[in-house]
Write a structure and sequence with these properties.
By secondary structure, this protein is of the alpha+beta class. The protein folds into 2 domains: 4-72, Multidrug-efflux Transporter Regulator, Chain: A, Domain 2; 110-258, Alpha-Beta Barrel (Multidrug-efflux Transporter 1 Regulator Bmrr, Chain A), CATH 3.20.80.10. It contains 8 helices and 12 strands. It has helices at 7-14, 18-26, 47-59, 64-72, 76-104, 108-111, 136-148, 210-223; strands at 4-6, 34-35, 41-44, 113-118, 121-131, 155-162, 166-175, 187-193, 196-203, 233-237, 243-252, 257-258. The protein has a 9-stranded antiparallel β-sheet with strand order 4-9-11-10-6-7-5-8-12. A 3-stranded antiparallel β-sheet has the order 1-3-2. The longest helix has 29 residues, at 76-104.
C-alpha cells in the first residue's frame, strides 16, 4: 500500500500521539483511509496537514463540535468567519485572565476594592444639575416618571460630567432592552452598553463625602496601573437603591451602541 502510513508512522511524522489520533477518529474529526491486511489503520499523505490542523485547534481550546463544523465547511468566507469568531472569544478570555491576574497582584483586599462584571444593559440617561450629594430629588422625579409608565428599573447610575460645587451629571436607569421610551420627557440619550469588567469600591460613607470615594478609587487605579476604559459610575442598587458602588470599567467584553 504505497503512499499510506500506519498510525505509528503518522504519529512520528506529525509529533502527535497515537492516542490523540485515535481520539480524533472517535470524534469523527478524522478517518483512516482503510485497514491493511494485518488490521492496522492506514492514513494517507494528505491527512498529515489535517491532523496537524486538528491538533492545533484543540491546543487553541476550540470545542470538538466547532472543529467538526470547520472541517466540513467548504466555503472559504464561512471558514474565515468561524476563525474570526474564535479569535474574538479567545481575546475575551485573555482579557479576563489579564484583569484577574492584575487584580490579584494588586493591594485589593486592604483597599476593599473588588471586581465586578457588568452585563449588557440598556440605560436611559437624563441630564441633571445639582450640588454634590444633592441629586436625590432628580432621581426620584425620573423614577416616578418611569414607574408611572410601568417601566421596571434594575439599577440607577450617576455619571459625573463637569463642575466642582455645582455639578452637571447624567442620571441613568437600567431598563429592559425592549423598553419603549417615546413617552418619557427630556431624555438625553438611550445607551446599549456592552458587558465589561470593572474595579469597584463599595461606598458606605455619607453621600456628601462621595468625592473621597472617587479619590480612593482613582488612587488605587493609578498606584496599581489600571487603564480605565470608561468613566467612573456611581451605581445604586437594592430595593431602595441605597447600596452604592463606584465602578471603573477596565476592560470591555462586547460592543456598545448609543441611540
Amino acid at each position: 500500500m504505497s503512499g499510506f502510513m500506519r498510525i505509528q508512522d503518522i504519529s512520528e511524522r506529525t509529533g502527535i500521539s497515537k492516542s490523540a489520533i485515535r481520539y480524533y477518529e472517535s470524534k469523527n474529526l478524522l478517518r483512516s483511509v482503510e485497514r491493511n491486511s494485518s488490521g492496522y489503520r492506514m492514513y494517507s499523505e494528505g491527512q498529515v496537514a489535517k491532523i496537524k490542523l486538528i491538533s492545533s485547534l484543540r491546543l487553541a481550546d476550540i470545542p470538538i463540535k466547532d472543529i467538526e463544523a470547520y472541517l466540513k465547511e467548504n466555503d472559504t468566507k464561512s471558514k474565515k468567519r468561524m476563525m474570526d469568531e474564535w479569535i474574538q472569544i479567545i481575546r475575551g478570555r485573555l482579557d479576563r485572565l489579564n484583569v484577574s491576574l492584575h487584580y490579584l497582584d494588586s493591594n485589593c483586599e486592604s483597599e476593599q476594592i473588588y471586581l465586578i462584571e457588568k452585563s449588557e444593559e440598556t440605560i436611559i440617561w437624563f441630564l441633571a444639575e445639582s450640588n454634590i450629594g444633592q441629586f436625590k430629588e432628580h432621581v426620584r422625579k425620573r423614577m416616578k416618571e418611569l414607574k408611572k409608565l410601568n417601566i421596571p428599573i434594575k439599577s440607577c447610575y450617576l455619571n459625573y460630567l463637569s463642575g466642582k460645587d455645582l455639578i452637571k451629571a447624567k442620571i441613568g436607569f437600567c431598563v429592559p432592552v425592549d423598553t419603549h421610551a417615546n413617552k418619557l420627557s427630556e431624555i438625553h440619550s438611550i445607551e446599549h452598553t456592552a458587558s465589561c469588567i470593572c474595579i469597584a469600591l463599595a461606598f458606605k460613607s455619607p453621600i456628601s463625602k462621595i468625592q473621597d470615594g472617587y479619590q480612593k478609587l482613582m488612587r488605587y487605579a493609578i498606584e496599581n496601573k489600571w487603564a480605565p476604559t470608561g468613566s467612573i459610575l456611581e451605581c445604586y442598587r437594592g430595593e431602595d437603591f441605597s447600596d452604592l458602588d463606584l465602578l471603573m470599567p477596565v476592560t470591555q467584553i462586547g460592543k456598545r451602541e448609543d441611540v
